[in-house]
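Help needed: design a sequence for this.
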């Protein structure tokens, strides 16, 4: 069995990606590193780490 490199994976069709809403994380945080996201009556915290990764917590 050989390992598959990420570059070998095929991307989903662009038509699927074009239909999905896309939001820039820095826009959501208004240039900061945290934002609150509300779904129904639940509040979630979106945080951009120093390493540039996203963390979503309840």
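Sure. Designed sequence:
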């Amino acid at each position: 069995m050989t390992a598959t490199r990420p570059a070998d994976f095929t991307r989903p069709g662009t038509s699927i990606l074009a239909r999905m809403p896309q939001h820039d994380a820095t826009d959501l945080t208004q240039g900061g590193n945290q934002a609150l996201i509300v779904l129904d009556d639940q509040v979630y915290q979106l945080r951009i780490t120093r390493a540039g990764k996203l963390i979503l917590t309840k």
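The beta strands are 34-39, 42-48, 54-57.
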